[in-house]
Amino acid sequence: FTSGDYTYSHADAHGCTQVDTLHLTINHPTYGDTTAVACESFTWHGTTYTESGDYPSSTSYLTNSAGCDSIVTLYLTINHIENSAFTIETSDSCYEWNGQFYCSSGDYEQTLTAITGCDSVVTLHLTTSVGVEDHEWETHVYLAPNPARQVTRIIGLREQPDFVEILDLSGRLVKRFKSTDLEVSTLATGAYLVKIHTSHGIINRKLIKQ
Fold first, then answer.
1. CA angle at residue 58 from 56 to 59, to 5 degrees?
2. Count of H helices and E strands in the chain?
3. pTM over 0.70, yes/no
4. Which string of DSSP letters, residue by residue, matches 149-171?
5. d(CA 171, CA 95)
6. pLDDT at res. 187
7. pLDDT above 90 covers what percent of the chain?
8. Shortest CA distance to 206 belongs to which of 178, 179, 171, 166?
9. Could you give the CA distance from residue 99 to residue 120 in angstroms, rounded to a whole number?
């Protein structure tokens, strides 16, 4: 049947002809699509999915505005957390990675964002292999005062530095000097990395600005 008006003629109890009219409306189910991309899992109409796939809602039919079934298919892509690692061996005192400075051997993790939009956990296996001679040469070099408000000085350096850089913790250069007296009064309060460039190599020191 389709929607329309239908008549039915029949005799009533007195033998007279009676005509009944049926006004009929036929409603139909509706169909639709839903596309989703998620990390690790996705919950849809009370069901949690952890794998990519096409999932029709026929397992638990929905109802459209006409009161009929509404069958919707979910086209789902599940992306997962990515794990990776890399190894660095350096003869420098510190290694800079995404604005962070690591000054001793060890394993360090950072959580980044992959191109899928999900977390990407990256592990750094770091070995700082500073030679004995270099290590002895730089151990007596320090900043004083530290923390500092106005000026800090490089103490214990056997030669005039080629130049000195002060970087913030994002790795951005904020000051550069040609002497061992470092004027820091204009720096914002916080921690900085001081890179002392000499003919023997680079000495890294941490500075706290008050």
1. 100
2. 1, 20
3. no
4. SSEEEEES-SS--SEEEEE-TTS
5. 11
6. 93
7. 20
8. 166
9. 17
